[in-house]
Specification:
With 354 residues, the chain is an alpha/beta fold. Helices cover 52% and strands 15% of the residues. Helix 7 runs antiparallel to helix 10, helix 10 packs across helix 13 and helix 14 crosses helix 15.
C-alpha cells in the first residue's frame, strides 16, 4: 500500500499531511492504549494504584520487573490515567482524576476489548475461512454488557415496569450475562423474583457469584441453557430480551423468529415482552462520526457479522413484532445522557388479543 510516487517535499507541504498523520497516529495510540490498559486491569495493577500502593510494592507482590513496570506507569501517566510525582530516581505514581473514575467506564472496555479482541485480531483470517473459526469471550461480553446497562437499559427497564405493571413480581430474562441486570432489578424493585437464561458457562458462573454477592439467592435464579432450548414454566409478568433477538434471527432466520415470538405471544398472552435492540443505521454519517458513534458503534457494527449476529434497522424490528402478533405499548430510546446516538431502541410489547 506504500506510495513513493510523490516527492517528499510536496508531501510535507501539503495541507492534509499533518491532519492525516495525526489521524493515523490516533489509530496506533488507540491500539496500544487499549492493549496496555486492558492488561493492567487484568493483572490488578490499576486496582493496586487505586489503593496508592508503591511501584516497588506492586512489583514485589506481582513478581514483575520494577523497571519495566515503571516504563508502563510512565506511559499511563502520559495517557492521563496516572500522575507522576517525586524525583526521577524515585517516582511516585497515583491515579489522576480520570484514573480514579476509570472504573465507571470499564464496561465498554470489558465488552469490546475483553469480549471481542479475538475477533478484531483475526478478521483477515475470517474473511478467508468464514465465521466460527475464532470466538468471542462470552464471560467478558456478558460482564461488559451488564456494566453498561447500569447507564442505559437498567434505568429504562425499571421505568417500564413501574409504568406498565408496578405490581409485577416475576421476570424472565433471556441472555442475562453476569446477572448484574437482574440483581439490580431485584434489589431496586420490591417483590421481584427473576429467572435468568444464560448460554455461556463462564458468564453463568460469574452470574452465580454476582447473585451471592447481592445476597439474592432466594429471588434470582439462573439457568445455563440456550434461549431457544428454554421453556418458561409459569407465565411471568415480563419477558426480557436485551440484545438477544439479533442473535436469534441470525441462528434461525427471520421467519422462524416470527414463529417463535408468535408462539410466545399465544402461550403467554398476559405477559409483557420487553425488548432492547440496536437500530442498525451505519449510513447515518452525522451520528456515526460522533464520539460514541465512531468510538463504540463503529466497532460494534463491525463485530456482529463476524460473530454470526444480525443487526437490523428499527423499521425491520417493528415489522417483525407486528407479524408476530404484538402490539407496541412503548417505543423509545435509551437516555441521551448515556447514549446520545439514539441507536439504543427499547420496546414494551403486549400480545394482541385474538
Amino acid at each position: 500500500m506504500s506510495d513513493n510516487s510523490m516527492p517528499v517535499a510536496k508531501i510535507l507541504d501539503a495541507p492534509w499531511f499533518q491532519p492525516e498523520l495525526a489521524k493515523t497516529l490516533g489509530y496506533i495510540r488507540g491500539f496500544v492504549a487499549s492493549k496496555v490498559i486492558w492488561q493492567m486491569m487484568q493483572t490488578g495493577i490499576l486496582e493496586d494504584l487505586k489503593h496508592e500502593r508503591s511501584l516497588q510494592a506492586i512489583a514485589d507482590e506481582k513478581s514483575v520487573d520494577p523497571q519495566l513496570l515503571k516504563t508502563v506507569l510512565d506511559y499511563l501517566a502520559v495517557e492521563d490515567l496516572l500522575i507522576k510525582e517525586g524525583s526521577a530516581e524515585s517516582p511516585v505514581y497515583r491515579l489522576s482524576d480520570y484514573g480514579t473514575r476509570f472504573g465507571l467506564y470499564e464496561g465498554w472496555f470489558n465488552i469490546l476489548i475483553g469480549g471481542y479482541e479475538n475477533i478484531f485480531s483475526n478478521i483477515a483470517t475470517m474473511l478467508r475461512e468464514g465465521t466460527g473459526t475464532h470466538l468471542r469471550n462470552g464471560k467478558w461480553v456478558g460482564t461488559g454488557s451488564c456494566q453498561i446497562s447500569r447507564y442505559d437499559t437498567i434505568p429504562i427497564t425499571m421505568e417500564f415496569i413501574r409504568r406498565v405493571k408496578p405490581t409485577a413480581t416475576t421476570v424472565v430474562d433471556f441472555g442475562c450475562g453476569n446477572a448484574l441486570y437482574l440483581c439490580t432489578l431485584a434489589r431496586e424493585l420490591d417483590g421481584i423474583r427473576a429467572v435468568g437464561i444464560e448460554p455461556n458457562r463462564d458468564a453463568y458462573e460469574a452470574g452465580l457469584k454476582q447473585i451471592a454477592e447481592f445476597g439474592l439467592e432466594d429471588r434470582v435464579h439462573l439457568v445455563n441453557v440456550d434461549a431457544l432450548d428454554y421453556e418458561i414454566r409459569e407465565e411471568p409478568d415480563f419477558i426480557l430480551m436485551g440484545f438477544v433477538l439479533h442473535e436469534l434471527i441470525a441462528q434461525i432466520g427471520r421467519d422462524a423468529l416470527v414463529t417463535y415470538l408468535r408462539k410466545m405471544a399465544r402461550k403467554f398472552s398476559c405477559s409483557y415482552l420487553m425488548v432492547m435492540e440496536v437500530d442498525y443505521d451505519i449510513d447515518n454519517r452525522e451520528v456515526m462520526q460522533s464520539d460514541v458513534g465512531i468510538g463504540y458503534y463503529n466497532p460494534y457494527f463491525l463485530l456482529h457479522p463476524f460473530t454470526d449476529q444480525r443487526l437490523l434497522p428499527k423499521k425491520s424490528w417493528d415489522e417483525i413484532f407486528e407479524e408476530a402478533g404484538y402490539e407496541i405499548i412503548i417505543d423509545t430510546v435509551t437516555s441521551p445522557k448515556a447514549d446520545p446516538t439514539g441507536f439504543g431502541i427499547c420496546y414494551v410489547l403486549k400480545p394482541i388479543s385474538e
